[in-house]
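=== Structure Prediction Worksheet ===
Name of assembly: unnamed complex
Input type: mixed (protein and possibly other molecules)
Chain count: two
Listed entries:
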Amino acid sequence: MKGTFRQSMTWLHTWAGLILCWVMYFMFITGTLGYFDTEIDHWMKPELNPSPTVPFDQQLSVATARLSAQANGASLWRIFPTSDRQTPQLKIFWEMPATTKEQRPERHSEILNNATGLPLAEKPRATGGGQALYRMHYILHYLPTSTAYRFIGIVTFVMFIGLVTGVIVHKKIFKDFFTFRSHKGRRSWLDMHNLLSVVSLPFQLMITYSGLIFMLTTWMPLVTLGSYGFDRDNAADAIRESRGRFSIDSAQQPAPLAAMGPIAAQIAQHWGDASVRYVEVHQPNDTNARVIAYRQTTVSSADQGLVFDGVSGELLTIKPAHHNAPAAVARVFIGLHEGLFAGPLLRWLYFLSGLLGAGMVATGAIYWVVKRRSKTANINNGRGYRFVEVINTGTITGLPIAIAAYFWANRLLPLGIEHRGQWEMHCLFITWGACFLHALLRKPQQAWSEQCWAGAAVFSLLPIINALTTDRHIINSVINNDWVRLSFDMTALCTASIFAIAAYRLKTRQQRRLPRPDLSSAVVAS
Amino acid sequence: MLLAVALMLLGTSFLCFSMKRHLQQLLPHWPFSQRRARIVRASGYACLALSITLICANEGTAIGLVYSLGWFSVVSLSIALWLSFREKMKPAHNKDRM
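=== Predicted Assembly ===
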């Protein structure tokens, strides 16, 4: 801490930001890709066709028929219809009750054809998909989940400190709102850092604060401990209850399950065509049976439910989304973070805001180096500075290249190998390691420029490899109206062209030997 | 939605015009006056408010606000980059005229 309040805050912003900025960048990139996790899954499983549009009541009936045949004696069924974005295929899940207290209930799931209710004929390849990419933004990889959670909690907290101190140290937050002066060396990097942060500030504050809410019970376990003691089951029950989840015991008296057609009609009557997220059947074929349909009504991640008697099919109650104010606040923040409510357009806006966040972190990290470049050149004591520079290049351009390698691996790894999904991930990290090594061995300007060319190459070849190894190429996607796969290929091409522009401009800049922040555009778009 | 985004673009441009530096960048012959800047700024905020109201009326208040903030990021970033691009192009224009 030194000097005035603003100076101390600048110090805190600089150093707190620098230590963890690469992890923040990693979280921003992988988390942002998570807004398209299902879509990436779809691209990474080329065997699957887009599901046909089948009315909700028919899906419910065929799924129940399949569950009756497969899951006799289950205590819980769950049906995920294809009307929801998150489930591109009809999915069923069931839980067999535990026979002893120590035993955990047995869980099963199946993916069905949404028209016939039979297991899907096409078997998708083993892949981590978009889910594995997205999960890395909060559980990282190669680390025990609890350790990763704690670490990510710290990073999120530092990020929050970075945002708050950033607002304090930015002297002319309104006056410089639209200011970006290019060709001004380090001034331009600072302008870009400020511009990206300020225009997306509400998003950055929301995403970081809600990230902290996710980590609430990890970092403040005493809150539950204080209320429920060490009885974990008791605490879990209480949390379930506070979220309004149902736990219904069997009456041990068999009774036929109500027909799904009338129940689907009542759901449509209450909710119109609004998409149902999933339907639960508690204690099917028992006199206590309950059928509950859930949907997300607004930004809050809590679901509203319609509760039906599972024997008569009569609507019993409407379960509200929230039961108490603190839970409502938390669920709204979590809902905003996840963005599950967002349609395609809003989803792209989320995606862009996430990239602005990544750009904010990256420009900040680059500014740190640019600001000190002249000083370290004079005193020739640049080891720390060189370290930051290598990690910057290896992360900012290396991570997108590594992610492209993950997609390459999905298409090129032999289909039969064991732990295929794991190997896709290994490919990502091996490539990333290679990028660090490359950044270490080359001069800074060469490393940036070569990695940008590499990024342009790997992303532009992605649709070509896709066309060579599967029949899901761009033309086929257009013919079959498969917009998701088409968008994926087009996004890869856009990313490639942005890398190419950045590389080209780095080259012209090197020729003119003028400092200019051209990489920012690559960072924003990668 | 398109209308609302256009209104947001208009409103944000007004806010930009109400700032002395940007006004002089864009319209160097216009004299800057505090009074006019206030009026322009007020109309800018009015356009933004109208745009947000439109989006919220269409999408519901909760999702509408999320949309508005998302669009605002895109619109203000575009204006800032456009301003910078225009500055960069300026000497070339002058050369042409000469």
